[in-house]
Amino acid sequence: MVCTTVRNGSECIFMGKNGCQFVGGSCHPIIDKCEGCQRVIEYLSEKYCMIFPDPASKWKNGSCNMATHIQAEAKKAVNKVNPIKASKRSQ
């Protein structure tokens, strides 16, 4: 449905027949960690996330899983070699 509270005129999954169904009745502005993300929209000089109504809760336990401005660290695969087999190969 179309938002009638904070982001008036934009699509929102939390809007219902009785208004905003999100806790608190409206979306919350982004936090500093969200700056630079492509999912941030600006509406009436405030910035909001297009995906989550409360961005601070997404950053509470680490990084946001939908953030486009951070890179996930890839774990290097370490080849574990059995030392006994390695000594036999060198002979």
How many separate structural domains?
1
- In order across it, which strands form the biggest sheet? 1-2
Q: How many helical stretches?
A: 2
Structural class: alpha+beta
Shape: rod-shaped
Helix content: 10-25%
What's the SSE pattern?
Answer: EEEEHH
Which regions are unreliable across 5 or more consecutive residues at pLDDT < 50?
none
* Overall pLDDT metric: 80
Folded structure, characterized:
Strands 1-2 form a two-stranded antiparallel sheet. Strands 3-4 form a two-stranded antiparallel sheet. It has one domain. The mean pLDDT is about 80. Strand 1 and strand 2 form a beta hairpin. The protein has two helices and four strands, in the order E-E-E-E-H-H. By secondary structure, the chain is of the alpha+beta class.
Keywords:
two-stranded antiparallel ribbon; 2 helices; 91 residues; alpha+beta; two-stranded antiparallel sheet
The gist of it:
The protein is α+β, with helices and mostly antiparallel strands and 91 residues long.
Question: Helix and strand layout, with pairings?
Answer:
Layout: E1 15-16, E2 19-20, E3 40-43, E4 46-49, H1 55-58, H2 83-89
Antiparallel strand pairs: 1-2, 3-4
